[in-house]
Amino acid sequence: MSLIGKKPIQIPDKVKIKIESGKVFVEGPKGKLDWNLPSGVEIQVDNSSIIVKRLREDKIAFAMHGLTRAYVNNMVKGVSEGYIKTLEIVGIGYRAQAEGKKLTLNLGFSHQVVYAIPDGIAIKAPPKPAHIIIEGIDKAKVGQAAAEIRAFFEPEPYKGRGIRYLGEFVRKKAGKAVGGTEK
């Protein structure tokens, strides 16, 4: 039995769930999301909860049971609360600037890095603390956008410069030893 799949999902107020022809539609105050249900599982909606059930007892159905429950739970949380990831830019002169549908990063390269902001994602870049705030209702899109921006300049282990998640610990290495034993 799937430990995650058997937990019921609580539906908050102002969130509507609709299931039609193998597709789940979730609508809330922040927006709408939909997802195709995998084969081997079904969803039952009670008054204030959602229950995911397996149709078969095989390995794939077991995996899809937990996946479906987690994905639908993320959809419900996304349309009611939303998701936020914060990135921190460490380095002298490194900064980010969000304008319209693009994010411009100055990361010490000979050129600026321009990131096209995907649909369904909002990015803010306050100038004083060098942070990038990524918001959206789809957890996967928010995480993917954060990972793509971080990949432009991952934190390096010697001085710690680069783009990191807020609160991420970067282990620093010792630099080259000065001097030596010469004969």
Q: What is this structure, in a nutshell?
A:
By secondary structure, the chain is an alpha+beta fold.
Q: Please give the radius of gyration in angstroms.
A: 22 Å
Low-confidence stretches: none
Estimate the helix proportion, in percent: 10-25%
Number of separate strands = 13
CATH class of the largest domain: Alpha Beta
Major beta sheet, strand line-up:
11-12-7-13
Account of the 3D structure:
With 183 residues, this protein is α+β, with helices and mostly antiparallel strands. It has two domains: 9-80, Outer Surface Protein A, domain 3 (Alpha-Beta Complex); 83-165, Outer Surface Protein A, domain 3, CATH 3.90.930. It has helices at residues 59-80, 139-150; strands at residues 9-10, 16-20, 23-28, 31-36, 41-45, 49-54, 83-90, 95-99, 102-106, 113-116, 121-124, 131-136, 162-165. The strands form four sheets. Strands 11-12-7-13 form a four-stranded antiparallel beta sheet, covered by helices on one side. A three-stranded antiparallel beta sheet has the order 1-6-5. Strand 3 (23-28) and strand 4 form a beta hairpin.
Explain the layout of strands and helices:
Blueprint: E1 9-10, E2 16-20, E3 23-28, E4 31-36, E5 41-45, E6 49-54, H1 59-80, E7 83-90, E8 95-99, E9 102-106, E10 113-116, E11 121-124, E12 131-136, H2 139-150, E13 162-165
Antiparallel strand pairs: 1-6, 2-3, 3-4, 5-6, 7-12, 7-13, 8-9, 9-10, 11-12
